[in-house]
Amino acid sequence: MHSAAEVVYREVKERILSAALPGGELISEGEIAAEMGTSRTPVREAFLRLEAEGWMRLYPKRGALIVPVADGEAEHVVAARRLVETDAVRTVIGHPTARTGLVAALRANLVAQREAAASGDVGGFSGLDADFHGLIVRAGGNPLLVTFYAGLRERQRRMTARSLARDPLQLASIIDDHTALANLVEAADADGYDAAVTVHMRRVHGLPLLQAGAR
Questions:
Q1: Residue 103 in 3-state DSSP?
Q2: Which secondary structure element, helix H or strand E, spans residue 76, and what is its range?
Q3: Each residue of 97-136: pLDDT tens digit?
Q4: How deeply is 201 buried, as exposed, middle or buried, from its count of CB atoms within 10 A (0-12, 13-18, 19+)?
Q5: Rounded-to-integer distance, Cα 136 and Cα 152, Å
Q6: How many Cα atoms occupy the beta-carbon half-sphere of 72 within 13 Å?
Q7: DSSP secondary-structure letter at 200?
Q8: pLDDT at residue 162 is higher than 90
Q9: pTM for this structure?
Q10: Angle CA(151)–CA(192)–CA(167) in degrees, nearest 5?
Q11: Displacement of CA 209 from its chain's centroid (Å)
């Protein structure tokens, strides 16, 4: 059983990652305490923890500001993800059994993505999106890269949820992109995957597409 502070922490963080609490929004301890039926003390503890993690900034007597995605953060996250994912794909395509297992897992994830999209569950969809890409990295079998990539997961999820909040119609195109990526893994086409995942991530996060040959 979790403490009240842990429950508040998880709930508020989930709202941040799902873009239910967008960057730039100001919230108060009293507001969250009333919503969750608790005192201000566990809310204050949760807010301090979220501030330490960089998700919010506290202002005495004013409230807590949800820290927006920093300028340039999307560019850096996408570049890091691309390198790690493409390395994993190049590794896994050399192992037919592992590749077959990965493709099956990706297709199962796609079924869940379609269900989330059909129900309008943007928060759940953003989590499945992060899981889809995480499956690929884990299949590469490099524990250091898996740990590194896990550190990007929450940032990735928040960025995706923010993009979907701006344009919910992206749900269908993201699923189409993911289907194409799974097909490229199945076809053992690492170069095709590299090109496709670059376009996919940059388009989803509103970044300009790179010119041919750019790295």
A1: helix
A2: helix 73-92
A3: 999 999 999 999 999 999 999 998 988 898 899 999 999 9
A4: buried
A5: 14
A6: 0
A7: H
A8: no
A9: 0.80
A10: 60
A11: 20
